[in-house]
Amino acid sequence: MHITPNLNLLWYVVGYAILMVIIGFFFSKKVSKSEDFILAGRGLGTFVLAGTLLASWVGSGTVSGGETSMAYSFGIIPSLLSNIPALVGIGILYFILPKIRETIGDRKKYTLASIMEEKYGQFARVLTIIIIILAYVGIVSYQYKGVGFILNVTTGLSVGWGTTIGAVLIIFLAAIGGLRSVANTDFISTFIMIIGLLVTLPTIYIIAGGWHGVISNTPHSHLTFTGPLSIPQLIGYLLPTLFLLLGDQNMYQRMAASKGDRTSKKAQIVWFIGYLIVAPTISLIAFASASLFHNIDPGMALMATSAVMPQFVGGLLLAATTAFIITTGDSFLLSAATNVTYDIVDRLSKKKYTDAQLLMFTRIFVIVLGLLAYLLINFFPTVLSVQMYAYTVYGAGITPAILSLFLWKRANAAGAVSSMLVGVIVTLVWEVGLGQPFGLNSSVISIPAAIIVLIIVTLTTSKRLTPSSDSSTSIES
């Protein structure tokens, strides 16, 4: 079956985009200082916070990479298994939430780099900045391509031109209102997402001939536990998601933006439930799509179903998909720009900038990093490939070190910095230098290596520190 563009579906996408721009402008008027822009004035309620957590996490990496591409390329069980790491990660974050809020909010530390410096020293801060920019620019880049897929389905416009339009829209929305604006557009987007997916799921299975019709048009290997993947290959797709989520600055900032610990905890429960509904639904829709469309980009599996469904259902699905993509792009772009402003410009400049100037710089860097993300997407063949790269660079490079702040107080600067270096270097050598040997994603090698190095180096170097020595001085000596 071929995808036939339907211009009528475009109106649903345009309607959603106009609504987001109007809401973005409205809340941008409430931004008067940098804390409003970065942490929404620390005033997010339970449902707005839950909505922005869910919408930020479930973006193009889910609707055109992750669950979608895995269901189309490997089968339903691998795709459903890919839901588990995020659920585990949300559960772990629930228990360390009070420490996250205290560290980011109460100490006025808006970025992970400033938190890492406090415990592990200046070099750890620099490494954190580099890793976040490498990973987040990659994550933003495939959000643009997700919009390109949507415009291709609706108008026949090339994915390239659609990607350009997506870049402009995402950069604009992130720059005007910061988290105060993004969080509220996320809240509305979440409802559109859930309704669109729940309506689409039964509709597409009816069109595909029910479960029997779907599996009768699916390769036998796609009905097995791992699909065409080996166990190590499957693990290579699961680990990056868990380790990105556990150390994700973007999520930490959101949890610190709530009204209090009770609000954050309730929001995380709602987030967990929402993800438990959304992610498996996407997997099942993409699996049905694989039985209908046999020669399309795997990243288009979810969106392609809009071409065979009743117009209202297809339009609702595309509006929901657009919601996933734009909100995630805005969130990661804003978070990375915050790093550049506070960890590079403000930190290294001899001049003392005013709050208004820092707010202006953050908006400027949203645009600059957004343009870099646009350039990056041209170097990766699929959304899933850039997703795995970005997740693994971050998960191996930052997460073991940042989690040790909350879970293993003995960790020191030497161990953390060594772990970060090993995580990033192994990832880049495995992915770029060696070209992914054995078809394994680098996460299978780099994440365990980073954890092992953190433990071994900490244990072997801490014995040489005097009781009065702290980690900051040890890394600088």
Automatic annotation (TrEMBL):
Predominant cellular place of this UniProt entry's protein? membrane
The way it spans or sits in the membrane comes to:
Multi-pass membrane protein
Q: Which CDD domains match?
A: SLC5sbd (cd10322)
Keyword Transmembrane listed: yes
**Assigned keywords, A-Z:** Membrane, Transmembrane, Transmembrane helix, Transport
User: How is this protein named in the record?
Assistant: Sodium:solute symporter
Q: What domain of life does the UniProt record list for this protein's source?
A: Bacteria
Q: Where are the bilayer-spanning segments?
A: 6-27, 39-59, 71-97, 123-144, 156-179, 191-211, 231-248, 269-292, 312-337, 358-377, 389-408, 413-432, 438-459
Fetch the Gene3D superfamilies from UniProt: Sodium/glucose cotransporter
Q: Is Transmembrane helix one of the keywords UniProt gives this record? A: yes
Question: Which protein family is named in the record?
Answer: Belongs to the sodium:solute symporter (SSF) (TC 2.A.21) family.
Pfam families assigned: SSF
Q: Where, per UniProt, does this protein localize? A: Membrane
